[in-house]
Amino acid sequence: MSQLTTHVLDQSSGRPASLVRIELFCEGKLLKEAETNHDGRTDQPLLSGEDFKDGVYDLIFHIGAYFRDKDLETSMPAFLEEVVVRFGLDTSMGKYHVPLLVSPYGYSTYRGS
Q: Which residues partner with 8 through β-bridges?
């Protein structure tokens, strides 16, 4: 089944990042809000079924709040308050998985499987 999923890994602790607020937008319209669970994943796919459509999407990870809740020493204001990942979704390509590997001062992402 075609779907969009994500997970967040905290590189500073080497663990999944739980309780990270995520927003999904398409063309400026908010489609979904979610929060990561204990495994750093959302409980449900962000998109699936008839909601899975071609387009340019933005995933916004509210990572500054996550690190503040962990009481990590970071700059004020936080260097990374929100991480925005803009990507194109082509329904003919099947499942999309967009993971975020993050620390207070850097991140990486890729199209996973």
A: 100
